[in-house]
Design a protein that fits this description.
Elements lengths: L9 E4 L1 H4 L6 H12 L4 E4 L15 H13 L10 E4 L3 H10 L1 H6 L11 H14 L6 H15 L10 H24 L12 H13 L6
Parallel strand pairs: 1-2, 2-3
């Protein structure tokens, strides 16, 4: 954020960090976070969660009001205020801005990012697997990307993005654990622990998760 903010301080929050359970708590929590982010950057992930369609009192609106006051100035100079990013899915974020008529006019820049392609999701999946210390050969990498292309070509991934990869890994771990358990059951004295990626199990995980996604169109 060089050139926009005075410091490299970056804070990522969600609704849970901003909204309290009783009157007054939300304002206090939100203002405390805004104060800690002065001269830095505050990113509210899934900001649309601050919006509520329910008829009951919802404190998300209080958090938005506090954020809007900070954007306006709230007694601080421009250089002291935080750079605020409201992140989320495009349509839900548009609905959020309708919740407060003054908020949209104060959002000076809007950036819309393209959805990840199946190949990009495959590469993200590989990085996540490597962080979990799975051993993946170059051949396996190509197979994973090919599986993602085949399984996601006609599926709508717009509401999942990289989170889809987390779901695939969770399912893969369950499948792989069941395989290892069966191996140990057949050979109790042996060792079935392995971090080599098992492509058949990965194929099953990818195809299973993809089957739960809606078809495009």
């Amino acid at each position: 954020m060089s050139g926009l903010c005075k410091t490299s301080n970056f804070t990522l929050v969600t609704r849970e960090d901003l909204v309290g359970s009783h009157i007054g708590e939300t304002d206090e929590k939100t203002k405390a976070i805004l104060e800690s982010c002065r001269r830095g950057t505050l990113m509210v992930d899934e900001a649309y969660a601050l919006r509520s369609d329910s008829g009951s009192r919802d404190f998300g609106k209080e958090a938005l009001n506090a954020i809007m006051n900070n954007i306006e100035g709230d007694g601080t100079t421009t250089t002291d205020r935080a750079c605020i990013i409201l992140a989320g899915y495009e349509q839900q974020t548009k609905e959020l801005l309708k919740m407060n008529p003054g908020l949209k006019s104060r959002i000076t820049h809007t950036f819309i990012f393209d959805e990840y392609s199946a190949e990009e999701l495959g590469k993200i999946l590989i990085v996540m697997l490597e962080k979990k210390e799975y051993r993946i050969s170059s051949v396996d990498e190509k197979k994973i990307i090919q599986l993602m292309r085949q399984s996601l070509s006609d599926r709508d991934t717009s509401q999942h993005n990289a989170r889809l990869c987390c779901t695939i890994i969770e399912h893969y771990d369950r499948i792989n654990s069941a395989i290892l358990f069966r191996q140990l059951s057949r050979n109790p004295t042996g060792s079935a622990a392995t971090f080599d990626l098992q492509i058949p199990a990965m194929r099953e995980a990818i195809e299973h998760v993809a089957s739960d996604l809606p078809l495009i169109g």
